[in-house]
Specification:
Among the domains are: 1-137, Carbamate kinase (3-Layer(aba) Sandwich); 185-212, no CATH class. 38% of the residues lie in helices and 19% in strands. Strand 1 (4-9), helix 1 (24-40) and strand 2 form a beta-alpha-beta unit. It is of the alpha/beta class. Helix 1 crosses helix 3 (67-91), helix 5 runs parallel beside helix 7 and helix 6 (184-190) runs antiparallel to helix 7. The two termini are 17 Å apart. The protein has helices spanning 24-40, 58-61, 67-91, 113-121, 139-150, 184-190, 197-206, 220-225, and strands spanning 4-9, 45-50, 96-100, 109-110, 125-129, 154-159, 165-166, 178-179, 181-182, 210-214, 232-234.
Length: 236
């Protein structure tokens, strides 16, 4: 049973039906799922990292741009998603804080490890934004790094309508095989698209477990908080 978790969320969770922008309805739905699961388990400590694919993808939107500049723009976009999620959590009755690796003192705290851990101990949800603060690293890597820094027990990789790790895309291949459990080494050797290679290698070196699960299947987050097996577990 996990006590402190790092929940990795895709930016698309906050988007409209076309996968773009920030939808207040979608963001509120996401916040309510987190709030309900949090209420189901006393003492659970939740930190989040949100991507920015709904607003900006450096490889796609920044084509022809300087790569570092495109990545910095993506990191700034994660702050917009983090603030939207914080607002939705507040309306759902959940106290939260945004800590950013790219300083914006008027709207968010700078990332300070010990302060983040203190917020978690006080029962606040902490949303980490701004990636790692450096270009060329994804939010998957940022999630892994923050999880290790705060001493999280697990990284929960939230998916939408995909209930784990498969040997091929289940939305395209009805014969795709689901893995109930994997080792970090198997993920690397099979080149499974769980997270980027830097992130999965870091998890492997530090023996940090990962759970890939369907965020929107009713009750999944509560089951994980209760210690039940959901989705695909990746561990050493």
């Amino acid at each position: 049973m996990y006590k402190r978790i790092l929940l990795k969320l895709s930016g698309e969770f906050l988007a409209d039906t076309n996968g773009f922008g920030i939808s207040p309805e979608a963001t509120s739905e996401l916040a309510l799922i987190i709030a309900k699961a949090r209420e189901s388990r006393s003492g659970i400590e939740i930190a989040c990292v949100v991507g920015a694919g709904n607003l900006w993808r450096g490889a796609r939107n920044g084509r022809g741009m300087d790569a570092a500049t495109a990545d910095y723009m993506g990191m700034i976009a994660t702050n917009m998603n983090a603030l939207a999620l914080q607002d939705a959590l507040s309306r759902a009755g959940v106290d939260s804080r945004v800590q950013t690796a790219i300083q914006m003192q008027q709207v968010a705290e700078p990332y300070i490890r010990r302060r983040a851990m203190r917020h978690l101990e006080k029962g606040r949800v902490v949303i980490f934004s701004g990636g790692t603060g450096n270009p060329f690293f994804t939010t998957d890597t940022a999630a892994t790094l923050r999880a290790l820094e705060i001493g999280a027990d697990v990284v929960l990789m939230a998916k939408n309508k995909v209930d784990g790790v498969y040997d091929s895309d289940p939305r395209k291949n009805p014969e795709a095989k689901k893995f109930d459990s994997l080792s970090h080494t198997e993920v690397v050797e099979k080149r499974l698209e769980v997270m980027d290679m830097t992130a999965i290698t870091l998890c492997m070196e530090k023996k940090l477990p990962i759970v890939v699960f369907d965020m929107y299947q009713s009750g999944n987050l509560e089951k994980l908080f209760a210690g039940e097996r959901v989705g695909t577990l990746i561990q050493s």
